[in-house]
Design a protein that fits this description.
single chain, 255 residues, alpha/beta, D-Maltodextrin-Binding Protein, domain 2, 2 domains, 5-stranded mixed β-sheet, disordered N terminus, disordered C terminus
Amino acid sequence: MSSNFKRTFVFTALSAFAGLASAQAWPTKTVTIVVPFPAGGTTDVLARAISNKLSAAIGQPVIVDNKPGAGATLGADLVAKATADGHTLLMGAVHHTVASNYYKNLKYSFEKDFAPITTVALVPNVMTVSAKSPYNSVKEVIADAKANPDKLAYGSNGNGTAQHMIGTQFEMETGIKVLHVPYKGSAPLTTDLLGGQVTMSFDTITPVLPFIKEGNQFALVRGRQSFFDKTSCSIALSRLRSATSRLSLLFSSSS
C-alpha cells in the first residue's frame, strides 16, 4: 500500500471524525479496529497498514483485534455492542451488506448500528487453483465440474461473504454443481487450497499473490476478465447511537 494512499486515508478519517471531536473529547484512549477475519487476509492487511499512520495522526494507540467467525458477523456483533464513542471501529467489507439477508437471526442491524467513515480500498478478486491441480483454464474447470457434479469444491471466507457469492454466481452462470466449503478467513482457506482439500477459491488478490508469484498457485482469471467482475470494498465503520444521528450523516457523507 503506497504512502500516498495511507496519507489520504488518514486525512479522510480525521475529517470524518472532526465533528465527533468537536462534540466530545476524541480520542481519549486506545482506538481498536476490529477485523472480523483471521490475520493474513486482505481486511487484516489493510487494517494493519493504516493503524500506525492513524495512531501517529490522532495521538493515541490504534490496535487491530482479529475476531473471525460466522461470515464476519461475530466481529460486527462485537462492535455493535461496544460503546458508541468512536473508539471501537469495524473494518468491514461487502459481505456485511449480504449478511443482513443471509443470516436471519443477527442481533444487530447493519443499517442502524453502523455509520461509514471512509472507503479504504477496492480490491479485485481472483480465481485460483493449486499449481498441482490438473487445470490450466476456467474452461477445463467447468468441463470437469459438468462431467462430475459435486466433485469439485471451492473455499470461501465464510457463508455470505463475497467469495461465497462469487462462487454461487459461478455455478449459476456456468450451469455446474460444486461444493462450497466455508472457512473463517483467507489464511486457513489458502492452506487447504495449497494442500488440495479444495479445488479453487475466489479470494481477493492480497493473500494469494505471494503464492502466485512463487508458483504454488495458478490464477485462472482475475477481476474484470470474466463474469465475476467483483471487487471487495473495505470500509471502516463506527457504531453510533441515534443520539448522534447528525454525526452519522457526517460520517456517511465522508466516504
